[in-house]
Design goal:
The protein is α/β, with parallel strands linked by helices and 180 residues long. The protein has one domain: Rossmann fold. Helices cover 40% and strands 14% of the residues. It has a five-stranded parallel β-sheet with strand order 3-2-1-4-5, sandwiched between helices. The radius of gyration is 16 Å and the shape is globular.
Length: 180
């Protein structure tokens, strides 16, 4: 197996696009070690999270802005079970494997970790990022995990463009246009 370089890539640039994309997906323990190594090297670690169902421009702008806020971006992605728990039995539209694959092809994403829990608190505690980035549908005060991040003097930041995009809205548009 190729050695991880700490940049969201493997040391071996051979293999299929799918294999290279899969190399960004790490376990929570691997993510913890990567984040610790980055912090120890003086790099600023950022965690962004979400379901990323039906990837759209708002997601990409949020993740690009999150990456711009630091040196290494971990994206914590809700598993299918976690999405169903928070958004209902009809979600996600896109299964977790495909959502992760799409995200892994974004250059701003260094590492991806899936999580099953209802909140991202466990991932944040493991990675102890300098920044927890959330989209503009939040304020720093409304982010549920802000107190968790403050425990190690981390900061909750809001980034991305105005909340003009949502998967729910995309689904509604698709149904309206194509159900006639």
């Amino acid at each position: 197996m190729p050695e991880k370089t700490g940049e969201g890539h493997t040391g071996n640039r051979q293999g299929t696009t799918e294999q290279r994309a899969r190399a960004k997906v790490v376990s929570l323990e691997e993510a913890r070690l990567l984040a610790k190594g980055a912090r120890d090297a003086g790099r600023r670690v950022v965690v962004a999270n979400g379901a990323f169902d039906l990837l759209h421009a708002g997601h990409v702008r949020y993740l690009a802005a999150a990456r711009d806020a630091g040196d290494m971006l971990f994206v914590a992605v809700n598993s299918d079970a976690s999405v169903r728990g928070s958004k209902g039995p009809l979600r996600p539209v896109v299964p977790e494997g495909e959502r992760v694959e799409l995200l892994s092809h974004l250059g701003c994403v260094d590492w991806i970790v899936l999580f099953d829990e209802p909140t991202v608190a466990e991932v944040l505690c493991a990675l102890r990022p300098h920044l927890h980035a959330k989209g503009t549908d939040y304020t720093p005060e409304s982010v549920p995990e802000r107190a968790v991040v403050a425990e190690w003097d981390g900061e909750t930041v809001i980034c991305g463009d105005p909340k003009d995009h949502a998967t729910t809205d995309l689904v509604a548009t698709i149904l309206q246009r194509f159900s006639k």
